[in-house]
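ingest -> validate -> predict -> emit
validate: passed (alphabet ok, no gaps, 594 aa)
predict: started
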Amino acid sequence: MSTADERLAALRAQLARQTLDGFVVPLTDEHMSEYVGSYAQRLAWLTGFGGSAGSAAVLADRAVIFTDGRYTLQVRDQVDGTLYEYCDLPQTSPARWLAEHVGTGARIGYDPWLHTRAWVGDTQAALVKKGAELVATPDNPIDAVWTDRPAPSLAPLVVHNMAHAGKTSADKIADIAAWLSERGDDAVVLSALDSIAWAFNIRGSDVARTPVALSYAVVRSDGSAELFVAPEKVTDAVRAHLGNRVMLRPRADFAAALAQDYAGKTVAVDPERAVAAIFAALDDGGASIDTVRDPVVLAKAIKNPAEIGGHKAAQARDGAALSRFLHWMSIEGPKGSQTELSAADRLRAFREEGGLLVDLSFDTISGAGPNGAIVHYRVEPETDRRIAPDMLYLVDSGGQYRDGTTDVTRTIAIGTPSADMRRHFTLVLKGHIALARAVFPQGTRGGQLDTLARRALWEQGLDYAHGTGHGVGSFLSVHEGPQRIATFGGGDEPLRAGMIISNEPGYYKTGAYGIRIENLVLVVEKAVDGAEKPMLGFETLTFAPIDRALIDTAFLDPAERAWIDAYHARVLAVIGPQLDGEAKAWLDRACAPL
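emit:
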């Protein structure tokens, strides 16, 4: 089955064999991950969609794919509109769509290892009103027809050492145990892969671009823990690192262990990060469930001094690699000999030359001209566009280093930019600067700051359909919660000193070009004369030139000009010593005062 219509037909035949009238296909795994291993790429296999967020619903006579504003263009390029309807989130949802299109008595299947309990409850309630039923499937019907589905990775675990972690796994587990005792709970289930990696100071390579290992964990109030992971993945070094307070058990035993070992116990479970099957296993065993956020989430988000220091070191070398690339593009771009793919390959090579790159932190977004207007564009050979004069080139990229995770976007002019390009770029830059300069009281949420980044665009009747900032892990996921800067889909978490978050406003002119300027920033305490409460602000962590050719100074006030000059002076101080020759001379010019 090599085509989308053949795969859709095979799934419908399998649904009939399982006496199902429909099935919901999310893009996630058993850990509610954003980025998933190849074995869990069911939505991509079925539909051809290559984004990192979406879902589909398949009925006997129609099918639909759901994506948000980041993928409005991409989903139409990758998914056959004769097979799937396109639905935009949050204007609709799978539950609402199903309720509108199923008939009385319909049985709609779902995999309980791929959905939260809240999703199941909401969808079931919507279907009941139509006389239909939501049915948990013990066997995922896509797996039955995906005959060459990859097996889950058995790559070995690796120890994340103290120099980078800044705190021992024993101390982290002791903190979790103390939290459990305060709540009166006996144990907590950790099912998010980055939570497990952080708590146990282990990393893996089971998911491309994210250094995590397929596993589950349970931490108990007495300070002991169980790590459920395939035995083939555990080395002697990992066994010695974990010590005798951590019992190693096969990952395949996890569900049975929940049902058998925690009867009569009170178990904390995160309703956002644990799938419905975990709740069902505990319910079947007679456990009491305390629904509460995973205690690792906030601890992981507030970086300790070692993690902050490591991140700064990673940013400095990553910024040097990106600056070398930007210098290279200033020469090669106008020649018209490079493409999106060749440029992305060259940028990776610059990062690899430092000798410390473990992986990219996500697939590089390398968008020339109109492809740059596709927010989460991923270049493929079929879409590879030549980079040519008089266009904008957007590159959003990052690296995974053992001391930190990077994420940075630069938009550059190839040749001579138009007046509209410069105006739009400068409006985005004004939003970036406004957020970078923000000072706010403790307790401020990301959603309260989002308008700072959008104001200049809004005043011109413009906007962008994505959040302004996301958290970033420490040699972990490039998208990390709970903090966000957004007016939709999050942004309710108070920002705290030690959090790392992106600052990335943008503007996208469909069919023409995209603009995004992204730096990572650290939330820090701010001393404000006369302040009556503790104040916070941002320290910029990312250093690489912002294209001066795209800045229309007529749109900037003196304070904004001063910020750009000060930022470029800092770029020279951090990056300059790492460059020499023509690259250093180019950097001097790129960072000259406005």
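The domain at 302-586 is CATH 3.90.230.10 (Creatine Amidinohydrolase).
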